[in-house]
TrEMBL record:
The keyword Transmembrane helix is annotated on this UniProt entry: yes
Membrane topology: Multi-pass membrane protein
SUPFAM superfamilies: Family A G protein-coupled receptor-like
Keyword DNA-binding included in the entry's annotation: no
A Pfam family hit: 7tm_1
Segments traversing the membrane: 15-41, 53-77, 89-110, 122-144, 174-204, 216-237, 249-268
Role this protein plays: Receptor for all-trans- and 11-cis-retinal. Binds preferentially to the former and may catalyze the isomerization of the chromophore by a retinochrome-like mechanism.
Compartments in which it is found: Membrane
Protein origin, superkingdom: Eukaryota
PROSITE patterns referenced in this protein's UniProt entry, alphabetically: G_PROTEIN_RECEP_F1_2 (PS50262)
Listed name of the protein: RPE-retinal G protein-coupled receptor
Gene label: rgrb
Coiled coil: none
């Protein structure tokens, strides 16, 4: 059995508790998004350009779930078993998942704005092109901290059982990279979502037909990622090592719950998509049960 040294500020119970949180969140998010992905692939009625964005969001989220499950496994071992190369791969894969997921949140908001407010139809060519660009840009920006380029650095989080962008350095490379990522992958999507959903809300209010809660998407974004980004921004001006290691672990664990919220909000919270999931699971269209009761 491999020996290990507990990281500073953590006990065996802490390692088990954080590992358990990562395991439960990862498994729940994986299950919800896996069903969403299979439903899109198996139910013909679901396969339209708008739902293609939801499908890609589920792909990005299930990738983040896998990232969290790897971290859970390492937490139970009490050490990182995959070596320095594995740390770089883990950090890169997690960053791609995060950047792609947040980008698809903005794409979904943009598409919903056109669905409800401009009545412009989304075509497959547009949806596929946008999705390809989103994935390509996510891979590009996530690759920059890899050793071959070195704009930012991937390194261990405080428990040393998972890897992410190293916010403890606070050097010029980290600051410039973090500010750029925050602008492109938090502020731009947040502004897109806020402007889109506020316009949709005005339309719903005018027509007195509220199809969904327009305030939830932006709230979920900032609830999951806001605290973690604040810590990363704080690291640009102060020594973040002065912050408790446990608190520095709570924030990324909270962020890794985002796939659960996304699945509940965009797949299971969408009446049409939920009907497709029901059809996939039961073989029965959602409207069939209603017809039989009449």
């Amino acid at each position: 059995m491999a020996t290990y040294t507990l990281p500073e500020g953590f006990s065996d119970f802490d390692m088990f508790a954080f590992g358990s949180a990562l395991l439960v969140g990862g498994l729940l998010g994986f299950f919800l998004n896996f069903i969403s992905i299979l439903a899109f692939l198996r139910v013909k009625e679901l396969r339209n350009p708008s739902n293609f964005f939801v499908f890609n969001l589920a792909l990005a989220d299930i990738s983040l779930n896998i990232n969290g499950l790897v971290a859970a496994y390492s937490s139970f071992l009490r050490y990182w078993p995959f070596g320095p190369e594995g740390c770089q791969i883990h950090g890169f894969q997690g960053m791609v998942s995060i950047l792609a997921a947040i980008s698809f949140l903005g794409a979904i908001a943009w598409d919903r704005y056109h669905q409800y407010c401009t009545r412009q139809k989304l075509f497959w060519t547009t949806a596929v092109t946008m999705s390809t660009i989103i994935w390509a840009l996510a891979i590009f920006w996530a690759a920059l901290p890899l050793p071959a380029i070195g704009w930012g650095v991937f390194d261990f989080e405080p428990m040393r059982t998972c890897c992410t962008l190293d916010y403890t350095k606070g050097d010029r490379d980290y600051i410039t990279y973090m500010l750029t990522i925050t602008l492109l992958y938090l502020l731009v999507p947040a502004v897109t979502m806020q402007s889109s959903y506020s316009t949709i809300y005005a339309y719903f209010k005018k027509t007195h037909k509220f199809k969904f809660n327009t305030s939830l998407p932006i709230k979920v974004l900032f609830f999951c990622w806001g605290p973690y980004v604040v810590m990363c921004m704080y690291a640009c001006i102060e020594n973040v090592k002065l912050v408790s290691p446990k608190l520095r672990m709570v924030l990324p664990v909270l962020a890794k719950t985002s796939p659960i919220f996304h699945a509940l909000l965009y797949s299971y919270g969408n009446e049409f998509y939920r009907g497709g999931i029901w059809q996939y699971l039961t073989g029965q269209k959602a409207g069939d049960t209603t017809d039989k009761k009449k």
